[in-house]
Amino acid sequence: MDDRPSDALVEQMMPALGELAQLIAYGTRPDSEALKGTLLQARLAKDKKALAELERWGPILQRVHDMPDDSDQRAAAIAGLMERGVREAPATLAVERAAGEPPPGPLRATQIPLVLGS
Protein backbone atom coordinates (compact mmCIF):
# COMPACT_ATOMS: atom_id res chain seq x y z
CA MET A 1 0.00 0.00 0.00
CA ASP A 2 1.30 3.45 -0.91
CA ASP A 3 1.47 5.57 2.22
CA ARG A 4 2.97 8.54 0.42
CA PRO A 5 1.15 11.78 1.26
CA SER A 6 -0.77 13.74 -1.34
CA ASP A 7 1.10 16.34 -3.37
CA ALA A 8 -1.11 19.03 -1.83
CA LEU A 9 -0.15 18.00 1.71
CA VAL A 10 3.56 17.85 0.85
CA GLU A 11 3.34 21.32 -0.68
CA GLN A 12 1.67 22.66 2.47
CA MET A 13 4.47 21.10 4.52
CA MET A 14 7.35 22.89 2.76
CA PRO A 15 7.72 25.59 5.46
CA ALA A 16 7.90 22.81 8.06
CA LEU A 17 10.61 21.00 6.06
CA GLY A 18 12.76 24.12 6.05
CA GLU A 19 12.23 24.65 9.76
CA LEU A 20 13.01 20.99 10.49
CA ALA A 21 16.25 21.20 8.50
CA GLN A 22 17.24 24.34 10.39
CA LEU A 23 16.54 22.72 13.78
CA ILE A 24 18.70 19.76 12.81
CA ALA A 25 21.47 22.07 11.54
CA TYR A 26 21.54 23.66 15.01
CA GLY A 27 22.04 20.21 16.54
CA THR A 28 18.50 19.67 17.80
CA ARG A 29 16.95 16.21 17.61
CA PRO A 30 13.29 17.25 17.41
CA ASP A 31 10.78 15.29 19.44
CA SER A 32 7.09 14.98 18.63
CA GLU A 33 6.22 18.30 20.30
CA ALA A 34 8.94 20.16 18.40
CA LEU A 35 7.70 18.61 15.15
CA LYS A 36 4.17 19.79 15.92
CA GLY A 37 5.61 23.25 16.44
CA THR A 38 7.18 23.22 12.99
CA LEU A 39 3.78 22.39 11.56
CA LEU A 40 2.12 25.42 13.16
CA GLN A 41 3.21 27.82 10.44
CA ALA A 42 1.63 25.59 7.82
CA ARG A 43 -1.51 25.28 9.97
CA LEU A 44 -1.02 21.54 10.15
CA ALA A 45 -0.23 21.11 13.85
CA LYS A 46 -3.21 18.78 14.36
CA ASP A 47 -2.82 16.86 11.10
CA LYS A 48 -1.72 13.33 11.99
CA LYS A 49 -0.61 12.52 8.44
CA ALA A 50 1.58 15.62 8.33
CA LEU A 51 3.13 14.78 11.69
CA ALA A 52 3.80 11.20 10.59
CA GLU A 53 5.44 12.47 7.41
CA LEU A 54 7.62 14.93 9.29
CA GLU A 55 8.66 12.07 11.57
CA ARG A 56 9.87 10.25 8.42
CA TRP A 57 11.77 13.27 7.11
CA GLY A 58 13.59 13.93 10.40
CA PRO A 59 15.82 10.83 10.38
CA ILE A 60 16.64 11.37 6.71
CA LEU A 61 17.94 14.86 7.48
CA GLN A 62 19.56 13.74 10.73
CA ARG A 63 21.76 11.20 8.90
CA VAL A 64 23.01 13.98 6.63
CA HIS A 65 23.74 16.18 9.63
CA ASP A 66 25.65 13.36 11.30
CA MET A 67 27.78 12.78 8.15
CA PRO A 68 27.90 16.20 6.44
CA ASP A 69 30.86 15.40 4.19
CA ASP A 70 29.36 12.21 2.75
CA SER A 71 28.11 13.13 -0.73
CA ASP A 72 26.50 9.70 -1.16
CA GLN A 73 24.49 10.28 2.02
CA ARG A 74 23.37 13.68 0.71
CA ALA A 75 22.29 12.17 -2.60
CA ALA A 76 20.43 9.38 -0.79
CA ALA A 77 18.69 11.93 1.43
CA ILE A 78 17.56 14.01 -1.54
CA ALA A 79 16.30 10.87 -3.26
CA GLY A 80 14.55 9.76 -0.07
CA LEU A 81 12.72 13.06 0.30
CA MET A 82 11.78 13.02 -3.37
CA GLU A 83 10.35 9.51 -2.98
CA ARG A 84 8.09 10.98 -0.30
CA GLY A 85 6.83 13.64 -2.76
CA VAL A 86 9.18 16.56 -2.02
CA ARG A 87 10.27 18.35 -5.18
CA GLU A 88 14.00 18.29 -5.99
CA ALA A 89 14.81 21.94 -5.22
CA PRO A 90 13.25 22.00 -1.70
CA ALA A 91 14.73 18.56 -0.97
CA THR A 92 18.20 19.74 -1.98
CA LEU A 93 17.87 22.94 0.03
CA ALA A 94 16.72 21.05 3.13
CA VAL A 95 19.59 18.56 2.84
CA GLU A 96 22.16 21.31 2.37
CA ARG A 97 20.74 23.23 5.32
CA ALA A 98 20.74 20.16 7.59
CA ALA A 99 24.30 19.24 6.59
CA GLY A 100 25.82 22.67 6.92
CA GLU A 101 26.39 25.25 9.51
CA PRO A 102 23.32 27.11 10.72
CA PRO A 103 22.60 30.14 8.56
CA PRO A 104 23.99 33.47 9.76
CA GLY A 105 21.81 36.00 11.49
CA PRO A 106 19.46 38.24 9.56
CA LEU A 107 20.87 40.21 6.66
CA ARG A 108 21.09 43.94 7.03
CA ALA A 109 20.93 46.44 4.22
CA THR A 110 21.41 50.15 4.02
CA GLN A 111 19.29 52.27 1.75
CA ILE A 112 21.25 54.74 -0.35
CA PRO A 113 19.31 57.62 -1.90
CA LEU A 114 19.40 57.77 -5.67
CA VAL A 115 19.53 61.26 -7.13
CA LEU A 116 18.54 61.57 -10.77
CA GLY A 117 19.43 64.58 -12.83
CA SER A 118 21.02 67.82 -11.66
Short descriptors:
mainly alpha, 0% strand, 118 residues
Task: Describe it.
This protein has 118 residues and is mainly α. Helices cover 60% and strands 0% of the residues. The protein is built from six helices and no strands. It has helices spanning 7-12, 14-25, 32-40, 48-66, 71-83, 88-99. Helix 2 runs parallel beside helix 4. The longest helix is centred in the middle third of the chain and has 19 residues, at 48-66. The radius of gyration is 17 Å and the shape is globular.
Briefly say what this structure is.
The chain has six helices and no strands. It has helices at about 5-10, 15-25, 30-40, 50-65, 70-85, 90-100.
Low-pLDDT stretches: none
- Helix count, DSSP H or I runs of 4 or more residues: 6
User: How many individual β-strands?
Assistant: 0
N-to-C SSE string, H for helix and E for strand: HHHHHH
Cα-based radius of gyration, to the nearest Å: 17 Å
Compile the SSE list and pairings.
Blueprint: H1 7-12, H2 14-25, H3 32-40, H4 48-66, H5 71-83, H6 88-99
